[in-house]
Amino acid sequence: xxxxxxxxxxxxxxxxxxxxxxxxxxxxxxxxxxxxxxxxxxxxxxxxxxxxxxxxxxxxxxxxxxxxxxxxxxxxxxxxxxxxxxxxxxxxxxxxxxxxxxxxxxxxxxxxxxxxxxxxxxxxxxxxxxxxxxxxxxxxxxxxxxxxxxxxxxx
Amino acid sequence: xxxxxxxxxxxxxxxxxxxxxxxxxxxxxxxxxxxxxxxxxxxxxxxxxxxxxxxxxxxxxxxxxxxxxxxxxxxxxxxxxxxxxxxxxxxxxxxxxxxxxxxxxxxxxxxxxxxxxxxxxxxxxxxxxxxxxxxxxxxxxxxxxxxxxxxxxxx
Amino acid sequence: xxxxxxxxxxxxxxxxxxxxxxxxxxxxxxxxxxxxxxxxxxxxxxxxxxxxxxxxxxxxxxxxxxxxxxxxxxxxxxxxxxxxxxxxxxxxxxxxxxxxxxxxxxxxxxxxxxxxxxxxxxxxxxxxxxxxxxxxxxxxxxxxxxxxxxxxxxx
Lengths: 155, 155, 155
Prior knowledge:
Chain A is α+β, with helices and mostly antiparallel strands and 155 residues long.
């Protein structure tokens, strides 16, 4: 369990490093081919409502999003900074681990103070692959009621 | 030590999951029967002053608080989200571990932006019980000088 | 690797405990004699520009700073609270480990709400010494564009 736990924490930390650096290839590579990524308001998640702010159903869709981010001109770019709490192991099956991890994302725009952008928890299905641990499913359930302007980058 | 450290981190993460979900039964169950929970301003803690914002002296008092939270009508409910740093091991005795852990709690109210609600550090006495690790004492020493409105939920 | 990882996390947590308590001797002692500490805006770091907000080139310079902090009258003191994410291991050589760790620093002034003061990531060179792990180099690369007033304490 201990060795696994360090590997889980490294996966989580690698996600943060990739997404906050805007390294979208590295970001995509942390997911399995048939992965799922969803960004969901807490209220919808708690009530079982299907509406999601972002929803990707495969690594292909992640790559598409990554392409979109790189190729689109943004007039109002920003930095993101994720700080994660320690992952909680919810369940452990052979080859698959479910975890829950609190997060806070801070946003910094040019010449503006850093703000709390989005907080919540990641619900993850992590699988063991020949290349190491990967996200089979990542659901970011966020508390924050208001998303200032639109979300450009994944959380 | 390593195996212990993962167990300590899991206890900390289970606390966050329980309190942020408002699962007060799960929250109480992370403490020993004769536990202590205190929420104390940093200034008072540093000067040895006894005044605490919250103070519970047993699991019975925690259960009472949990009951109060569930049975009281709140006109202004909010979400909490804890993000913890890595626990620092301060001391290690047989069956008992003292740790210090930085925390930030973010609060989200309906239709309002998420704010930094309370930051500080947990000073914990963690004991090994047949059911796993439990908090014998948790003191949340907070930096934040002003608590916007009143605290409804434990930190 | 696992045992090492716990030691790395303890070093990071000890740094936070020292700096947030204002225990500048403990802070200095987490560095090697010929250490480097730099606080750099992300933009400058990304472009390879040398400008740093703080730059110390030895433990002697850290001790000097610590002396300066203790001996100077501040008319506007504040509390700092660091919350760190899990360290990512970037590279591992014999006796030396490179890590990247997200951080958020919250600032609290007397009778003011706690604010997000500075967020970013630590890029660390950690070495194994007879006294335990120490920082040979810590570079804090911060996203935050504006530093409200001046930085008194190290990040």
